[in-house]
Amino acid sequence: MAEAVVSFVLEMVGDFATQEAKFLSGVSHQVEVAQTELQLMQGFLKDADARQGQDATVQVWVAKTRDAAYDLEDVIETYGLKVASKKKRGIKNILRRFACIFREGVDVRKIGLEIENITAKISNLRLSLQSYNIARVPTEIGGESFSQLHERQRLLRRTYSHVIERDVVGLEYNVEELVMHLVKDENRHRVVSIWGMGGLGKTTLARQVYHHKNVRQHFDSFAWVCVSQRCEIRNVWEGIFIKLISATKEQRQDIKEMTYDEIAKKLFCVMQEMRCLVILDDIWSIETWNFLNVAFPNEQTQSTILLTTRYEAVALPPNRNCFLHKLQPLNENESLALLEKIAIFGRPDIDSGIYSKMRELGRKLLRHCAGLPLAIIVLAGVLSTKNTIKQWEMVNENVYAYIRRGRGHEQEYEGALWVLALSYDDLPYHLKPCFLYLGHYPEDREISVSTLTKLWMAEGLISLRQQRQSLGETMENIAHNCLTELVERCVVQVGRSGSTGTIKTCQIHDLIRDLCLLKAEEESFLQIGYSLQENKATNPVTSSMVAKATPVGKIRRLAIYLDENADRLVSSRDETNGHVRSLLYFVLGEWRPRSEKVLLSPLTDFKVLRVLKVEDVDEVEVELPSEIGNMVHLRFLSVRDSKIKRFPSSLGNLICLQTLDFRVRYVELFIPNVIWKMKQLRHLYLPRRYTASGNLKLSTLGHLQTLDFLSSEYCDLNDVAGLTNLLKLQIRLSLPLENLEEILKSVGSTLNRIQSLLVYNGYYSVRNTSYEEQGNQIVSSCRHIYKLKLDGPTAELPKELHSYPNLTKLELCSCSLKDDQMGILENLPNLTTLLLISEVFEENTKILVFSKGGFPSLQFLSVFRMDEITEWRVEEGAMPSLWRLRMGFCSGLTTLPDGLTYLTNLKELTIFGMPRELHSRIQEDGEDFCKIQHVPSVVIGEPYDPPMQ
C-alpha cells in the first residue's frame, strides 16, 4: 500500500505543480525537492510492501513512509486552497491588502518549513534503506530468504492430478455439466474455464472431471499442470509435453535440449494430431495465457484445455471458443453435509443427543463460512479434534481465528485466509486501496456501487493519470472499470445489476471482508469504531475477529457504527482526528438514541476530511454546525435519509465538493443559495421538496453530471444551458412555466446529451394540462436518453418516442395514460425494461392488453399496484424475449393471463401481495398452475388481504 500511496501523492503533486503553479508561488522549490525524494524512494516500495507482513521493522519503515507521503499531500493541498481562496476575495482596501500580503508571507515561510521537514523525513527514510535491508534481495526473514518464502508458498499451492479428495459435497451438477462440454463432438469448445473466488473448490472440481470415466474414455492422452502466480512458460510446456507423450528417460533429455521454439512446435503438433485433455490449474493473468497459447492449436484439433482461474478475463477473453463455468458457493444443506462428513461421521462415541447438539452448533458455525468449501473444510478439521460440546462452543467463541489459521490456530498455511490473501497480493497497486475501502461497510451490507465509486473519487483513489491513460474517460467510468476488475478477480461479488447490465450493488464474502479488515489494520488504512454512551469509553475495534493491536502509523479513515448503545455521533475528541480523511457513519439494527436532537461535532477536529457520510440517521434530528464550512477539503458530503431541516450558508466554502447529497427525510428543507460556488460539483442530489430564498443559482456548475430534482419553483431552467456535462436529470414541474419553448431552445444542446431523465409532473391530486404538455416538451428535447421515468399525470406520450435510438428502460408511475397509449409503448423497438406502477392508465381502463408482436425486445416487466386492472391479456407473439416478470399488489387481478404459456423464454417469475384467490390458483393443484409450470424459477410471496372496512 505504501507504493500506492506514494504513487497517488506523486501524481497529485505533479498535477498540482503543473496546473496550479500560481498557487505554489514561494514554495515551488521545496515541493520539487520533496517530489524528487519520493521518486527516488518509489522503486523500493514494492519489495517493502511485500515484506512488511513478515518483518516488524520493515512494517514500521513502510508506515513512516506512507505517513510522510500523506502529510506532504495535506500540506501542499491546504496551502493551495488557502492561496486560491484569498486570490478570489478581491481586497479593495489597501491597508487590508498589505495585511493580507504579510499574512501570506508568514504562511509561505511556515508552509515552506513544513515541506522541508517532511522532505527531511523522507530523505532519512530513503537513506535508512540499507539498515532495514530493503535494498537487498534476497533478504533473510525469520531464517528464510525472501525468495525461499515465495518458493515455499508456491509449493504449498501446487496441485497434483493424482490427489483425489475424499470429502467432496455439492459438485455433482458441476461435474455433469463440464463433462458434457468436454466429450461432445458437435459445437465443441476448445477451452473450458472454471472461474470463481479462492477456496470455492475449482481445483477439486477439475480433478473430479479429470478422472471421470467418460472423460477418460473420450480422450487419448492427458496432462495436468499447476501454473500458479509465478509461471515459467517453458517449464509448463515441458510438463505438458512429457505427460502427453509419456516420455521415456531419453525423450525427457531430448526435450530438455530443445529450443524454446522447437518445444512449442512439438507440443502444437501433438495436440493437433491426438485427442488430448490438458488441465491448466490456477492461471492468474491473461498475459500468462497468451504466452502459453502459442503452443496450443486453435483450429482442426480435437484437443481441449480445461483451466481454472480467479480472474474472469482469463476465463473468458474475447475471440476464444470457450465455455465458462462459474462455480458457486455451497448452499446451507450442502455446507452442513460437508461439515458432518469431516467433523462428525465415523465417531463411535457420539450418541444421538450429542450428534443433534453438534449438528445444531455446526449450523451456527457455518454462517461464518458463507458456503466457501475451503473455510468449511478448515473449520470441520478443527472440530474433528474436539470431542465435547463445550469444546465446540469454545471454537464458536473465536471461530474466525480458527478459520483463518486452521487447526491449533498457529499453522498459518493450514487456514483459509492465506489462500484468499493471494488474491489481494495479486492486485495491482491502484486497486488495493479501492479494495480496502470496502472494509468501511458492516458485515453483509449491500453496497451501492454509485456511492462507492464516488467515495473512491473523493479520496483520490481514481487518479488523473488513470484518466489520461483511459483516453479521456470520465473518472466515474474509470471507477466503474476498477469495480468490474475487482469482480473479475473474484474479490467482490455482484449484487443487483441494472437494465443495461451495469452493476448497481455489490457485496463481499464474509471471509474476504475479514481479509479486508486485517489488511486495512496492517496498513493503518481504516479503523472501525462505535459511538458509545457518554459514560463508556470509545472502543475502536474493527471486528470481533480482528486483533486489537495498535495500528502502525496514523489512522486516515474512520467508520463509526451506531448501535443500540449510541446516543451521539462523535464520541470524544481524539488527537488523531486531524489526519482523518474519511468519516462514515453506519446505523446498525434498531438504533434508538435517548436525545431528540444531536449536533454533529466537533467537526473542527477533522481538518483534512474529504468524505463525510451521515446516512440513514433518521431516529434523531441532526444539526450541522456552521463550522462545517471550514472543512474545505471535503469532496463528498451525504446526509441522505437523515433528519436535517436546514443547512448552514457556510457550505458555500466547500469549493472542492464533487458529490453533495441533500436527499433528507424532512418534507421541506431550506437550502441556502450557495451551491453555485461549488464549481467542482459532479453529482448534486436535492430532496423532492425544498425551499430556498429565490432561485438556486446553478449555471456555474459546468462539471455537473447528475442533477436530481431540479424544481421549477426554486430553480431557473435557463441555468441548464451551462451544465454542459449533464448526463442524468430529475426535474419537478411544480409550476406552469412561461416561455418554455424558448427555454428549451436555449438549453437544447445540453438536454440532447442527457442519458437518464425523470419528469415529476406536479401533484397527483391535480390534473393540469400544462404540467402534462410541459413534461412531454422536455422529453421531446432529450432524444438520446437510455432511461426515462414519468411520475405523475401525463395522459399522452410523445409520439416520436418510438424513434429514440437508445431508450431501453421506461418507468411509468401514476401517469393516468389514455388506453390508446399502449400502442406507443408496444412499438418501442429497443425497450428491455418496463415498470408499470400505480394508476398508469386512466381509471376506466380495466383491461390490460399486450398485443401480438408488441414489445419485441422486452426482457423485464414489473406490474405493481395496478389496482385499476381487472383483466390482463397476453396474446401469442407478444414479448417474445421476456425472461423476468414481477407482479405485486394488483388487487383487481384474480387470475393470471392465459398467454403466459406463450412466453417460452420466461425464466424468473415473482408474485407477491396479490389477492388470495390468485395465490390459490397458482398452487400446484390450482387452475392457473399450468400457465407457469414451464418457468424454471417461481417465487411466490405472501398474499394481500385488504383491511376490514
TrEMBL record:
GO terms, molecular function: ADP binding
Any one biological process term the GO annotation gives: defense response
Domain Disease resistance N-terminal: 5-91
Disease resistance R13L4/SHOC-2-like LRR domain residues: 595-911
SUPFAM superfamilies membership: L domain-like, P-loop containing nucleoside triphosphate hydrolases
Residue stretches making up the Disease resistance protein winged helix domain: 441-516
Location of the NB-ARC domain: 172-343
Protein's name in the database: AAA+ ATPase domain-containing protein
Native organism: Prunus persica (Peach)
